Amino acid sequence: MITQETAGALAAVLDDAQTSVSDTPSLADTHTLTVDDAYAVQAALLARRTARGERPTGVKLGFTSEAKMAQMGVSEIIVGRLTDAMRVVDGAEVELARFIHPKVEPEVAFRLGRDVDPHDPDADLADCVDAVAPALEIIDSRYRDFRFTYEDVVADNTSAAGYAVGPWLPVRDVSDLAVHLTHGGSRAEGTTAAILGAPVNALRALLDMARRRDVPLRAGDTVLAGAATAAVALTPGVTTCEVAGLGRVSVRSV
Question: φ and ψ at 87, to 5 degrees?
Answer without folding.
Answer: -75, 135
